[in-house]
Amino acid sequence: MTGLVSLFRRLEGPQTLGRGPAFWALFALVLAGALAYPLFSDGYTVGNTVYFFVWVFIALSLSLIWGYGGSLSFGQTAFFGIAGYGYGILTINFGAAYGFTWIALLLAIGMAALVAALLGYFMFFGRIAGVFLGIVTLAVTLMLERFMAQTAGPEWRIGAARLNGFNGMSAMPPLTIPWFGGPIPLFADVGLYYVVLAMLVLVYLGLRILMNSSFGNVIVAIRENPERAEMLGYDIRKYQLITFVIGAALAGLSGVLYTVWGQYITPSSMGMTAASLPLIWVAVGGRSDLTATVIGTLVVLSGFQALTIYGSQYALVFMGVLLVLTVLIAPNGLVLGVIKGITKLVTRRKQEAA
Amino acid sequence: MALLQLRDVNKHFGGLHVTNSVNLVLEQGEIHCLIGPNGAGKSTLFRLILGEHHPGSGQIYFAGEDITTLKSFARIRRGLSVKFQVPGVFKGLSVRQNLEIALQSRLHGAALDKEIDRLLAFLNLEAEQAQLAGNLSHGQKQWLEIGMAIALKPRLLLLDEPTAGMSPEETHMTGEMVRRLNAAGMTVLAIEHDMAFVRQVAQRVTVLHLGQVFAQGSIDEIVADERVAAIYLGQAHA
User: Fold this and answer.
1) Under an 8 A CB cutoff, do B84 and A236 touch?
2) Secondary structure E strands in chain B
3) What share of chain B is helix, strand, coil (3-state, %, to 5)?
4) Burial of A333 (0-12, 13-18, 19+ CB in 10 A)
5) What angle do CA B37, B40, B43 make, to 5 degrees?
6) Nearest CA of chain B to the CA of A66: how many Å?
7) Chain A contact probe: residue of B83, B101, B159 with most A CBs at under 10 A
8) C-beta separation of A332 from A339 below 8 A
9) If DSSP codes are grouped into helix, strand and coil, which group holds residue A340?
10) Mean of the per-residue pLDDT values for chain B?
11) How far is CA A218 from the centre of its chain?
């Protein structure tokens, strides 16, 4: 019981913005709004909203590894792809009966985590850091994209699953809930919306607890000064590796949900553009805070989507401009800057009133 | 009893012999100062003791155990602790959080908060506890890092120029801090250029020159040694 209480106390702390009744009231309000939203909309629109939620997990994984841990990784997209393809291969071969899609979801995330553990072991224990970490992870991502792109021939199949080269893999079953009156498949509709929303809330709160725990303390300490952190007796490479694996699992969750949502995945979801966009959402939002990352990702992503209607190439150019402006004006992130500004204003008002 | 022992330790960087057959014994409970001109190999010796560098040959013993091949964090867990020359605080985190990170593997909950408060008082940093460590003055950063180093309750505290950039008053206060820690049982090895500080705290002094132990003794013996004065003036080419 006391363990549970101390766990809940970790929801607030120095590593995450937002504390006190006002913040949690706002959180409850936003959550209530999100829960009620399908009542005022149609299934098609709600299904499209899920698409935005899907990407928040990969954004959070970058916030964890880059914003909190200080290691820039281009590898998140690779883990996204591994898990996405993994889910496809598993479910195309074994079907969706008996709730297997959920096991496939876990196994696919496990695959991404396993690859991250191997790659991370060689990187961190080989003392690769800083910009070189970015280069190595980018190389892995692009290599995977190139590899998948050349699997068009019929010889590239795993069981019943054709990899299909640049056209990608499709027609895998959606997440399916086994039920007495027959299984319920979750297509991009209200059902999937609630499932993904629940995952999002759980992951967000779970990461808040993790980052405010003693583990999170060590992670930010490594970002601030790795030598000092090690000289306090922490095996920093172990901490970096664990963070990297957790991040890969989250990126993998994004990958599976993306595949489930559209029932297809292609190598271009591991390409250069796909690897760069999450970086921009997270940088613009504010990588060193979970809440800023979530808000930033949803805002930038919906803006990007709106722009794409008028021309996808222009939308990409706009994204680049946005990144440059962020780096110049608010290097810690625009959303984070706004939140901090408001907090400062409120405390000043309070002090003046007192 | 010897707490730390270096036996015939050698370190080369390319053709440069930075640590040349150093033998050094640190007794349990002493304050030992390491002095010598720039480039004498003092900081390299610290890095060898801490495991940031590994010696080409020779052994390092801590409390009777051969730690020559141990990784840095493992040496820290055995009772070593260090304050770097350039203050190595976590600049983007609050003063309080800096201390919490140093203490959290040893203490939890209310005991952790209490120990942080005690350390803040010891370091004269109570008023600054909510500030970011990066906003502290240079001297305060030095103290905070000393605080983080002693938070581990080390058996041996290594201090690399603890008073660099401090005013004479701050230097004196730091000296008193070190003496109080020593009175409580902590062994201290300090690299220091400030002779007032060395005189204030050192029970034994080792002079390092060109990577070798040049002289050893009490501060009075070292000051009286003409050869030592000569190397500081750059006249000896031993």
Assistant:
1) no
2) 2-13, 16-27, 31-35, 57-62, 65-66, 80-83, 156-160, 187-191, 204-209, 212-217
3) 40, 25, 35
4) buried
5) 105
6) 15
7) B101
8) no
9) helix
10) 91
11) 21
The helix or strand, by DSSP H or E, that contains position B161, with its residue range, turns out to be none
Using beta carbons and an 8 Å cutoff, which residues of A are at the interface with B?
6, 14, 214, 217-218, 220-221, 223-225, 227-236
The structure tokens listed for B33 are: 């100062």
Contact A76, A62 (CB under 8 A): yes
Q: Of the candidates B82, B94, B100, which has its C-beta nearest A231's C-beta? A: B82
What is the C-alpha to C-alpha distance for residues A16 and B88, in angstroms, rounded to an integer?
24
B150 φ, ψ to 5°? -85, -15
How deeply is A278 buried, as exposed, middle or buried, from its count of CB atoms within 10 A (0-12, 13-18, 19+)? buried
Strand partners, B80: B156
pLDDT (tens digit per residue) in B30-67? 999 999 988 888 999 999 999 999 999 999 999 999 99
| pLDDT tens readout for residues A244-284 | 999 999 999 999 999 999 999 999 999 888 999 999 999 99
Beta strand pairing call for A184-185 and B156-160: unpaired
Paired tokens of A310: 């008028």
Contact B91 A231 (CB under 8 A): no
Residues of A whose CB is below 8 A from B97 = 14, 217
Contact in structure between A262 and A188 (CB atoms under 8 Å): yes
Half-sphere exposure of A255 (CA within 13 A, CB side): 39
Alpha-carbon dihedral sign for residues A18, A24, A28, A29: negative
Which residues, in sequence order, are CB contacts of A62 under 8 Å at separation 6+?
A73, A76, A247, A278, A279, A282, A287, A293
Closest C-alpha to A67, from A304, A255, A281? A281
Q: Which residues of B touch A236 (CB under 8 A)?
A: 73
Q: Name all domains of chain B by residue range, CATH numbers in brackets.
A: 2-89+136-232 (3.40.50.300)
Whether A133 contacts A66, CB under 8 Å? no
Range A96-110 average pLDDT: 94
Q: Which residues of A touch B47 (CB under 8 A)?
A: none
Buried b or exposed e, range A147-180, using 16+ CB within 10 angstroms: ebbebeeeeeeeeebbbbbeebbeebbbbbeeee
Residues in chain A within 8 Å Cβ distance of B79: none
Please give the Cα distance from A121 to A133 (Å, whole number). Answer: 12
Which pLDDT score, from 0 to 100, does residue A1 have?
61
